[in-house]
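User: Hey, my collaborator sent me this sequence without any context and asked if I could get a structure. I don't really work with proteins. Can you help?
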Amino acid sequence: MKVQHLNGLNLPHQKLQRGRKLIFLWMVVFVSLVFLNVIFPATARAVEVPDFIGSPQATAESDIINIGLTVGDVTAAIDGGVPIGNVINQDPAAGINVVPGSPVDLVISGVAVPNVVGVTQGNAQTAITNAGLTVGTVTTANSATVPIGNVISQTPAAGTPVFQGNAVAFVVSVGIAVPNVVGLPQGTAQSAITSANLAVGTVTIANSTTVAIGNVISQNPAAGTNVAAGSAVALVVSLGASVPNVVGITQGNAQTAITNAGLTVGTVTSANSATVPIGNVISQNPAAGTNVEPGSTVAFVVSLGTAVPNVVGLTQSAAQTAITNAGLTVGAITTASHPSVPTGNVISQNPGAGSNVAPGSAVALVVSLGPAVPNVVGLTQSAAQTAIINAGLTVGAVTSANSQSVPIGSVISQTPAPGTSVTAGSAVNIVVSLGTAVPNVVGLTQAAAQTAITNVGLTVGAVTTSASATVSAGNVISQNPTAGSNVAP
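Assistant: No problem. I've predicted the 3D structure and written it out in structure-token form, which is a compact way to encode the shape of the chain:
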């Protein structure tokens, strides 16, 4: 009972609380609607998508924006029944209700990009502009298949639907870039040319001081030149360095010529030559005109001139022949006596045997006159005989004679005379002094006797007197030494 009382007393209060709750709920709903209408006004009303098909693109896009929608993806497609630039299709379709601000995608009647690949640049540009498009970026590139000036590729690709006025870029062929084959072996160069879709042209050969034998010296057209496919590339192939002719020139000039030809100086030796001047080249190896690798060595032989032959001891004629055979000339010929060299043979020569002289130089000769008879007059017989033998001669007849001037035992005269040239071994005759023969003055007057004595180169000695029954007074009775005695002058 108490409980029921209490419940009965609280009934009006409970009704009041329920009423408050309903009011609160309606307020929440009202506020929520207001909030949603403020924050999301589009949720408050839907927009019906109009029909844009057939409308020009600009008109359709303007209408979309004006009704509170946005322009979505705009693409192009080919439709021969709809004018270019008008709407072919739309999404959402016409009549669909969408939230304000929703995008509307459009498909516009466009242009098919023409195929300009393979045509000339001029024709490509004409085709693009005739299709209602514009020419975009034009670049160039090498091509082994597309002729020079024709289109290699395009963007967009042929047949792609695009909007009227869009740009079409394309790449024009500049042909094939000639490869660089200089310095390569001929075979490798030819392979590189054919691999580049070109042809090997004329191949010629030439010497080179730098390029190895068989390698390419030059090419035409030059590397990097753009040419049409199948064009010929001419080559010049190296024969190597040509050995210069250095025979006959000076050693210095020969060395310069060799290095200037891209070669190196090899072994330099020397030898005699009857024709090549001293210091000039007699021969070379390899021979002039030989083709060798650049940097190869060239050896040569330098002339020492002519070696003077040894003609000492030869006859004059044989000596002269030997000199001229050696490429020399006979110089001054003088004569002299010689104790051992036969008459007419060479005693000496100048220059000496083995000397190196210029071809054509003169060789002077001294030719023997044979032994010269020595002067033995006045010498003792012994000394005279020794001198004769030492001169390569023999002692001939030795005779004696009186002499008022030559001491006893010394040579008064000789035959042949001193200085006479004779054959070796010839005899020299001598006359040896017996001294002075004392004259016979017995019977002569003293004065006549004294004159006779002094006339023979003697002197008057002691004069004594004596009586004589036979000799007249004043005349010589006797003398000492006796008449005919040989005494020293």
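In plain terms: Helices lie at 2-39, 57-66, 121-130, 186-195, 251-260, 316-325, 381-390, 446-455. You can pass these tokens on to your collaborator as they are.
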